[in-house]
Amino acid sequence: MSVPPTAEPTLWELQRALSQLREDQRDGIAGLRDDLRSDLQSLAARFEQVVTKDVYTSDQRLMAQRVDVVERDLAAERRAREDAETKAIAGRRWLIGAFIAPLVVAALQLWLLARGAGP
Known about the structure:
Radius of gyration: 49 Å
Number of domains: 2
Number of strands: 0
């Protein structure tokens, strides 16, 4: 089979096809470049949020110290509350012993005198 001479592209068509191919490649590369720039910008933004291992370790150490201080304060508060409860119980016992018991004894003596069983 022979190819007719008009079936082959002319030099002008080849030049236009090459120009179109170059333009498509240029647009594709420009698109890739823009995508790469946006990816690098988002990556840079993420790197700004990253914390180094030393900073993280020191932050964890500081947090552990704060928790220890809070636990010590809580234990001291618990001991103070227990001491206050013990003092309140002792105060109630003193109140009963100092005021109420003599009143009960006096009331009992009055009741016994009223019944006529006196000394």
